[in-house]
Write a structure and sequence with these properties.
By secondary structure, the protein is an alpha+beta fold. It has helices at residues 73-79, 88-94, and strands at residues 24-25, 31-32, 53-57, 60-65, 69-72.
Length: 111
């Protein structure tokens, strides 16, 4: 049975850190979401144990192993557990202003 593709379903990039829709590129030119734009993928290993090199091609990002050859991003993400270094939840809580009550007899009233 043939199911026709719908517009926008043929290629959807996912963020390797949180699996949300990727809308930006990081410094390595890997598609990521806006929250993980400053994160980088490093120390990715192949099944054989050697390090993988990030490459860019016509169809997007892929990885190259000296022993095994080329691998796509999905296969590498299955092999390696990726965790972001920054905790964005803590950063968003710190950026919220604290409420301060200043009375008229307080020395900070005139500042």
């Amino acid at each position: 049975m043939f199911i026709p593709k719908k517009y926008g379903q043929s290629k959807t990039d996912r963020c390797p850190f949180c699996q949300r829709h990727a809308t930006a590129m990081n410094s390595q030119k890997v598609p990521v979401c806006q929250l993980h734009k400053e994160e980088v993928l490093d120390n990715l290993r192949c099944v054989c144990g050697s390090y993988l090199e990030i490459m860019h091609g016509k169809f997007g990002v892929f990885f190259s192993c000296m022993k095994c050859g080329n691998m796509n991003l999905n296969k590498v993400m299955e092999i390696n557990a990726i965790k972001p270094r920054m905790k964005h939840e803590n950063l968003s809580k710190k950026s919220q202003p604290k409420e301060m009550t200043v009375r008229s007899d307080d020395p900070r009233y005139f500042d």
